[in-house]
């Protein structure tokens, strides 16, 4: 008899996660421009305003798993969501650039704790034999937020104003808090409080597959950071506008297949499909001259990166004991975020020197190298069933 997957805990956790990601994407496309228009910020300062959220989240990832494991999932979840509401309130009186950057940092810091805690909650509610399937369905919450959030944020700013955007953001954060109050958290063993060590930042069992996702995240950073500039230069703005719609659409369809496939056939078949798709997508972006090619690359990126992320999250959860679930999840997020954060810094100079086509061709090669790394650190043991 198949264990039940879709439970009230799963559904409420899915909604909380969706709202948290929606908050991120509502603001991610608008904060740099807000810093320029409101504070006359330079390009560097506006970039800091945009990236301060990620900086706060990355710092929080260093110990969010440890805190979640030691204090418990419910207090960390509720406490972090309350801080998110406070941060959303503070956008209104943040009338200087340093204050605005500080608020973005605080929001990112709390967001990292909330995402770690809610992922630990939902993983404890997923039957082990349906781990990949459940993780894939859960990942759809962030996928939908990716499809809806940036466009909604830009619409609110262009059609109304930044105060209206901040009002919608605040109301959305309150919805997340109300939903979190009703999440029933399964009983789980709590880690004993002990001295904080390096293993609490990055769990040794998760580091290898996390480093694989660091390489994949570096490749994906080239997509999310430079796609608009690439499209403007090549006259492919229509294709770029449909890129993430195609990404979300293919994920919505394939999530009903790939998670079950990973549970029944193992990790390698799904990871292999994801790597091939992502590598081809990056190769298409390197040579694309038509809008349909960019849309195709978006669909393949959804089948690629959109497959690899939940598949590796399911692997990470299997690699740690139940009482270290938070640490395992935060370790994966931390390493993936490092790739996403470092990528634009490394790739910006390459774009200036050689152009977008060269950058995407190089990233396609990095994706191939990551396949070899995956085989070395996990693929062979997964194939043998160890």
UniProtKB/TrEMBL annotation:
CDD domains: MFS_YfcJ_like. It is found in: Cell membrane. Keywords: Membrane, Transmembrane, Transmembrane helix. The keyword Transmembrane helix applies. It is a multi-pass membrane protein. GO terms for molecular function: transmembrane transporter activity. One of its GO terms (cellular component) is plasma membrane. Signal peptide: none annotated. Residues 9-382 form the Major facilitator superfamily (MFS) profile domain. The chain crosses the membrane at residues 12-35, 47-64, 76-94, 100-122, 134-156, 162-183, 204-227, 239-258, 270-288, 294-320, 332-353, 359-377. Its main location: membrane. This is MFS transporter permease. It comes from Corynebacterium doosanense CAU 212 = DSM 45436.
């Amino acid at each position: 008899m198949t264990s039940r997957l879709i439970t009230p805990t799963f559904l409420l956790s899915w909604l909380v996660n969706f709202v948290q990601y929606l908050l991120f994407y509502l603001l991610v496309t608008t904060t740099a421009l807000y810093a320029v228009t409101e504070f006359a910020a330079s390009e560097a300062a506006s970039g800091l305003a945009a990236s301060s959220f990620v900086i706060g989240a990355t710092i929080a990832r260093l110990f969010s798993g440890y805190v979640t494991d030691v204090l418990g999932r419910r207090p960390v979840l509720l406490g972090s969501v309350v801080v998110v509401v406070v941060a959303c309130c503070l956008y209104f009186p943040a009338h200087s650039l340093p204050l605005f950057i500080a608020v973005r940092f605080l929001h990112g810091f709390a967001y990292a704790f909330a995402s770690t805690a809610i992922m630990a909650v939902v993983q404890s509610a997923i039957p082990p034999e349906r781990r990949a399937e459940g993780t894939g369905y859960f990942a759809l919450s962030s996928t939908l937020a990716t499809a809806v959030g940036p466009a909604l944020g830009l619409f609110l700013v262009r059609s109304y104003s930044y105060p209206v955007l901040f009002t919608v953001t605040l109301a959305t954060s309150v919805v997340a808090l109300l939903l979190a109050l009703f999440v029933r958290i399964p009983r789980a063993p709590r880690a004993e409080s002990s001295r904080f060590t390096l293993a609490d930042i990055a769990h040794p069992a998760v580091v290898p597959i996390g480093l694989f996702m660091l390489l994949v995240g570096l490749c994906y950073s080239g997509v999310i950071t430079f796609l608009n500039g690439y499209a403007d230069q090549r006259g492919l703005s229509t294709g770029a506008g449909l890129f993430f719609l195609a990404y979300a659409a293919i994920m919505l369809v394939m999530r009903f297949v790939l998670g079950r496939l990973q549970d029944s056939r193992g990790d390698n078949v799904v990871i292999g499909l994801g790597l091939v798709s992502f590598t081809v997508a990056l190769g298409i972006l390197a040579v694309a001259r038509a809008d349909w090619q960019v849309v195709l690359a978006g669909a393949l990126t959804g089948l690629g990166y959109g497959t690899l992320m939940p598949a590796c999250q399911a692997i990470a959860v299997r690699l740690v004991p139940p009482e270290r679930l938070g640490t395992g999840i935060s370790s994966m997020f931390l390493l993936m975020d490092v790739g996403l954060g470092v990528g634009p810094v490394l790739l910006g100079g390459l774009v200036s020197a050689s152009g977008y086509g060269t950058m995407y061709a190089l990233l396609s090669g990095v994706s191939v190298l990551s396949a070899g790394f995956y085989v070395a650190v996990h693929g062979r043991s997964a194939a043998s069933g160890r």
